[in-house]
Amino acid sequence: MSLQVLSVASEVYPIIKTGGLADVAGALPGALKGQGVTMKTLMPGYRDVEAKLGAGRTVAVFDDLLGVEAEVRAVRSGGLDLFVLHAPALYDREGGPYLTALGYDHPDNWHRFAALSLAGARIAEGAIEGYAPDILHAHDWQAALAPVYLAFPKRKKKTVRTVLTIHNLAFQGNFAPTIFGRLGLADEAWSMDGVEFFNNVGFLKGGIYASDRVTTVSPTYAREILTEEGGMGLGGLLRERGEAVCGIVNGIDTGAWNSADDAMLPATYDAATLDRRAVNRTALLEEMGLAPTQGPIVSIVSRLTWQKGLDVVAEIAEAIVEKGASLIVVGTGDAQIEGAFQKLSVAHRDRIGVRIAYDEALSHRVQAGADAILIPSRFEPCGLTQLYGLRYGCIPLVARVGGLADTVIDANYAARQAGCANGIIFDDASPQSILTAIDRLIEIYQTPGPWRAMQTAAMGSDVSWTASAELYANLYRDLMKDDAR
Predict the structure, then answer these.
(1) Rounded CA gap, 214 and 74, in Å?
(2) Which candidate in 103, 158, 203, 415 could, as Cys together with 141 as Cys, close a disulfide (CB 3.0–4.6 Å)?
């Protein structure tokens, strides 16, 4: 009999996306089907979501969900079985999932995502007739209170096992203590063994404490967050959880990211027809207004933030093009970093192309046309961009952190001799490390045989969900065994 899992997530691709969380929430249900796991997903009914999905079928009604009226509506879309939390007072507004149209946090985000978590807990406890999940799987701080609602009061019999996945520990959902009384939690939850976190309400902290298992999105990142520096205030609690914490590397949707039949590309190709990639390369240079070049095209598709190390890239961009490379930057983020890249594109029109936008189709064309994808993150839980790069033969240049270190094989002598090198790894997000990596890239790029071998190895990398889905399924089954003891 299939194991039933309720996933609770604040965004789900292709319905709505701001980052990698959506990709994971959207891809994992399909990947788990082959593992005997049926996953349904609860998500908020943002204005854009409901416009895209339609009304659906009402399967549960909450007269008072933390002070608002709400319904749960079942919808099937693109192979996903969704529960959409229809609560106009919380989600029917302009702006994105987390930010207003002016770019500020919605002031009631605590309320919006506490309600999502509570709805998830109530569904797990039987709010939808005929649906009884075995496990609730919460994603990030926005859903992290769901395990808390199931765990408190402690004297309550807990019938559903819980998993919390941390996609990025930097985002913790910490709010003023004044909101605690409005969360509908038992008083005992206001403690170190609950949601209290340095006299604030910590959504993620509470979820880490209350969940039966805590996963993050790569084994290296799972080790990094146990340290004082990488733990961002939660390292001690994570160390206390011991073997309950583990890392499972993300995969990608290899159907959506497939250079052999990607309708967004000027020319499709695979590892056996890599010469056709030149069509995409020429088209990308034209689209970005750059001059033809014999040097490598180095690309960035990312949030333009300090975490991603892109302040450093802006500082050394001129040195990169002086070495003979061209640079393409696509993304949005910190205004100062955006501005720095825009000035560089004006000063070096033929060599630096910048698009300040989130553009899914352009990101496909960049991966298919650029020669390398640069990811100099200061920390990176998993990263998906390097996986897209591998899939498309766009060689990743990555910092030795988190999931980047787990998914890229450095082109050192031994790896190149073995034919398994698929990228270039450098030590940190410092100017010297990045520029040395660029030098290594150019050296290999100028030797066609080794370059083609590295592209072929990259495209042969298994970046699918197959292995990771099996690990998640095993984790779920282990939880059920624990419950049976």
Answers:
(1) 28
(2) 203
